[in-house]
Design a protein that fits this description.
By secondary structure, this protein is mainly β. About 0% of the residues lie in helices and about 45% in strands. The termini are far apart. The relative contact order is 0.31.
Length: about 130
């Protein structure tokens, strides 16, 4: 069982930056692929980015490339999402998720591939 706790969300102005963190419990963090998802009001949850257990491979949703960066520190059991040049349309609840599955770019974008979820952290971008 893995418990995930997100932090770092908040209110930021257009063009600002945030760093979201997701701390995981357990001793086998490096065996989990990790993903960040967002859910905007009235919309379905969608993948922002994912990273393999070692951190050597990353995947970004096309619409998220260039402004968002995923990274991880296995020694700290933590995965990060760096949000830059934020826009009001980035306003959403951001969730981290963990998967025990083998890395596959076909399945990585899909929420069903992930086994554990955090409670989410709200990001609000004002105009």
């Amino acid at each position: 069982q893995v418990q995930l706790v997100e932090s770092g969300g908040g209110l930021v102005q257009r063009g600002g930056s945030l760093r979201l963190s997701c701390a995981a419990s357990g001793r086998t963090f490096s065996s989990y692929s990790m993903g960040w998802f967002l859910q905007a009001p009235g919309k379905e949850r969608e993948l922002v980015a994912a990273i393999s257990g070692s951190g050597s491979v990353t995947y970004y949703a096309d619409s998220m490339k260039g402004r968002f960066t995923i990274s991880r520190e296995n020694a700290k059991n933590t995965v990060y999402l760096h949000l830059n040049s934020l826009k009001p349309e980035d306003t959403a609840v951001y969730y981290c998720a963990a998967s025990t599955g083998a890395w596959d770019i076909v399945t990585v974008p899909h929420g069903q591939w992930y086994h554990y979820w955090g409670q989410g952290t709200q990001v609000t971008v004002s105009s």
